[in-house]
Amino acid sequence: MFTLLGKGRGFSRSNLIYMRKFYLTFPKSETLSHQLTWSHYFELLKCDDPLERHFYMQECIKEGWKVRELKRQINSSLFQRLALSTDKEGVLALANEGHRVQTAADIIRDPYVLEFAGLPKQKRYREKELEDALKVHMEQFLLEMGRGFAFIGRQYVVPIGSRRFKVDLVFYHCILKCYVLIDLKRAEIKHSDIGQMNLYLNYFKEEVCQSDDNPPIGIVLGARKDELLMEYALQGIDNQLFAARYQLYLPNRDELQAQLDRLLGE
Questions:
Q1: What fold does the segment set 112-250 form as a domain?
Q2: Among the residues of the chain, which ranges form H helices?
Q3: pLDDT tens, 62-79?
């Protein structure tokens, strides 16, 4: 334990409290990872829920998160957001194994939290302003997107006949072995936005993807979406296409936890 803490002198009252909590939480040393520092464990011990704490511990080890990245993921309620998109058994698997990426649906988060973009919640902004902010803060955006994303470019030109379209952001997913296209919408996602992304995906399948690539994934990312409208808009589309929301502020952690508690109690 003292290898984590340093020389063992000058401890504050807060440190002593967390040292005791550390001992009570991890009584068996074999449950610890030497890949994590005391600063990591200090943040992990702030999670009272053992499922949540174990999830962040697993992700820290797998992803090599620095303490700053761990704090950001806890503050953005990543565990609760991912957990609420699954069932009770899925929550337990998430806590024990971390977030596994095996299908296109596994990379989708709803909502995405983009507080690092620095755009005030009430400010009127253009889609280009959000796109510019995400490019400036690409490291944080990749952290929010999750494991396996590699940035390819922005305003990717899609020439079809005499017309030129542009995809806002293009990534390659190194685990799923496919392109991921993202179109940003400042307001509510419209059914026409779904049709446009479907066009882009068809183009990528025919003109961009190589023989060893899997089919591309499209994400229309907007400030709002009507669930019923999206259900009808996406019906019958063969491509891997998703509509998801983003928000420019940290979510209400207590509300998300209350929803998760209801899910686990059912």
A1: Trna Endonuclease; Chain: A, domain 1 (3.40.1350)
A2: 2-5, 13-25, 38-44, 50-63, 67-75, 78-83, 88-97, 127-136, 138-145, 191-203, 227-234, 253-265
A3: 999 999 999 999 999 999
